[in-house]
Amino acid sequence: MSSGDVLDDVAALVAERNRIDALLTRRVRAAELSQAPERDGQKSMRPWLRGHCRLSAAAAARLVGNGQVLDHLPALAEAHDAGLVSAEQVAVAAVALTPERLAAAAEHGVDLAEVDAVLTQVAIDHPHADFVAAVRHHLTRLDPDGPEPDPTEGRRLMLARHADGTLSLRGELDAVGGEKLQAALESFVQADRPAGDERTRAQRLGDALVQLCDTALAAGSLPVLRTVKPHVAVVIDLEDLADPATGREAGRMGFGAVISAARARWLACDGTVSRVVFGPDGAPLDLGREQRLADRHLRRAVELRDGGCVFTGCDAPTWWAEVHHLVHWLDGGKTNLANSALLCERHHTKVHHGFRVERQPDGRWRTWRPDGTEIRTGPPLLQPAA
Fold first, then answer.
1. Residue 362, SS3?
2. Tell me: the pLDDT tens digits for 196-253?
3. Residue 330 C-beta-side C-alpha neighbours within 13 Å
4. CA 16 to mean position of chain CA atoms
């Protein structure tokens, strides 16, 4: 193919992707408005898309948010349908369409149809940066004087975990909140300046943030999380812990990161080591020296076995979940591991209103709707429903 043919193909494929994104966004919006996710025990399309379509939290949120944009900006929606506007551009427009900003537009007499026309023209004819600037200009019109905002409205922190367990941070703080963080971090930075230190400023701040967390966790004054004090947890096989080799990807941490056996041994130097014996079905059989299964010990066993909410399609982590009796204790169910399941608050309520979860002999969990049909998370359909 000639260079021109290749470039034409690229442009055509981008336009086709835009059209498919528009169709998908409209279907997601229709499902959201009809409360379709309730069929599978989910509150909204965001968790359904994560659990059933394997989307990231950010991708699911953007799809749902874009559907709301198409409702309010029909011209932009039409351009998206035609492949002239991308899903990314629609997502940029979403920041101007929060309930608060829609109310401000109505209060200031802003004609959304005019805004829609202008933004659509810029999106089609100008570079992406110009479109971002046009949306920002619209927001400035809604609040030209800039009254003193609630500081909590300007605070946000996003944590993105990568495949290797590392964590990226991105966020914003108001002036006072930022001052508090800087004051806390700077105290560690200035107190830890050994001779010959070649760390960059960014590295020293990163170390200070970790030290700040160490200090807060060690103080023991943080709020209790699901009956357990916040702590750093690592699950590792005894053989890997005892083996002096590095043992990469041998330990699994409480929030999902995977670390080497060497790093786990380093953490164990000033931590508590608890023995948990697993049976052939992957269920904990023994929790070390405890004489009986008290609440916190049972919870630890259920967390180790289940790893999060067991309701099909749910990705809620252990710290959002509650321990559920498969057979209610009023009906003779025992408070033990075999009769327990980890469920997030929403799905704990669902299984008390007709839904049912059951652990199979091979350790897998399955979920049934009140009508007896099973909830499955198979591969996405090749052809969209008519």
1. coil
2. 788 888 999 999 998 898 888 888 788 877 667 777 778 888 888 878 887 788 888 8
3. 1
4. 29
At 85, which amino acid appears? V
Count H helices and E strands in the chain, helices first: 14, 12
Q: Is residue 66 part of a domain?
A: yes
* Euclidean distance between CA atoms 370 and 40, whole angstroms: 10
Burial of 22 (0-12, 13-18, 19+ CB in 10 A): buried
Report yes or no on 53 lying in a domain. Answer: yes
What's the length of the chain?
Answer: 386
Is there a single domain that holds both residue 13 and residue 123? Answer: yes
Helix axes 128-142, 99-107, angle to 10 degrees: 60
Looking at the structure of the chain, the number of domains it has is 4
N-terminal to C-terminal alpha carbon distance within the chain: 36
Domain boundary among 212, 246, 268: 268
DSSP letter assigned to residue 324: E
- Domain extent, residue 141, equals 3-147
Tokens of 61: 């949120």
pTM for this model (two decimals): 0.69
Same structural domain, 299 and 359? yes
Within a domain: 77: yes
